[in-house]
Amino acid sequence: MTVMAKEQTDNFLDRWVEEVLRGDARAVARAISAVENREPPARELLRRLFPHTGRAVTIGVTGAPGSGKSTLVDGLAGLLRRREHTVGILAVDPSSPFTGGAILGDRVRMQSHATDPGTYIRSMATRGALGGLSAATLDAAAVLDAAGKEYILVETVGVGQDEVEVMRLADVTLVLLVPGMGDDVQAFKAGIMEIADIFVLNKAELDGADRMETEIRALLSLSPPRQQWEPPIVRTVATRQQGVEELLETISRYMEVSRNQGTLEERRVRHCSERILEILRERLLERVVGQVLQDGALNQWAAAVASRQEDPYSVADKILEQAGWRGTEQ
User: Fold this and answer.
1) 19, 45 in Cβ contact below 8 A?
2) Which of 62, 160, 241, 322 has the most neighbouring CB atoms within 10 Å?
3) Could you say which of 3.40.50.300, 3.30.390.10, 3.40.30.10, 3.40.50.2000 is the CATH number of the domain covering 53-261?
4) Does residue 17 carry a pLDDT above 80?
């Protein structure tokens, strides 16, 4: 890159960063698209935005499909706006197996906030992430944080027990359950049930709400005790806005306790540690793919493994050696 081209790029990025920090919706949209599509300017843009992050409260909302996550997020966003807080919403939808894009169902359901300048809504695709979130979701949350959103609500796709990645992003994690799940609660206990900071018993007007709450409390009694915070159960009827105010007060109380006890800082350090490792894995893979796995080389190695001429462990060692790493594990 010539000196002039570098100056032009720097000026372009400076303007872009300034627009994002002002909360300009178009600049924010372009930034999230650049992050999601891994466009060349995205990495440097995130570097420049990062010093302006760390102020937002990030709320993760997860639970089984049909538990009312979108309706609850919509209700929380409305209440926060009535209290004059700015809100960013990242609604993670399943990826299309053909285009890789999001289905956008959640964004359609939140149209009541579409014209509100204090609310930014974005649907994002999982891009095949098993935990229900893609790496781009974490970076998109950072963009919204830098843009001045005080609360960021991240609604996950709702894939069940494996959907625990949201705790790598959220300051507080809400797990939604509904009456009538029955044995499904038992199935969740080894995964998603253990990440909850607050349980939300939604659709609490339905029969079986008392039984469901009893089951949750029984599972909590079998879990290892937590030092400062025992996850409460908040009943809501999100379609009628019932219990949403109590839920927001519980979130505020959790944030106060976690700040005072130092667990919020510990959690954010853990998030950063995991993010650094994730970036390292991504960069190392990019280097291997760029240096070694070109022109169908991966398929050739895969064919050798499939025919049992090679084993996958030895192939991985050979690929790493070709990429310049020595002393791989034998």
Assistant:
1) no
2) 62
3) 3.40.50.300
4) yes
pLDDT bin (cut points 50, 70, 90) of residue 158 is low
Distance in angstroms (rounded) separating the CA atoms of residues 149 and 133: 20
pTM of the model: 0.86
Task: Calculate mean pLDDT across residues 89-114.
Answer: 59
Residue range 16-29: mean pLDDT, rounded: 96
What would the two tokens of residue 111 be? 């149209």
CA distance 124 to 107: 10
Residues comprising the chain, all counted: 330
- State pLDDT tens for residues 299-322: 999 999 999 999 999 999 998 888
Sequence letter at residue 98: F
Domain with CATH 3.40.50.300 in the chain: 53-261
Sheet of strand 119-125, all strands in order from the earlier edge strand to the far edge: 119-125, 87-93, 151-155, 57-63, 172-177, 198-201, 233-235
DSSP annotation of 2 reads -
- C-alpha R_g of the chain: 22
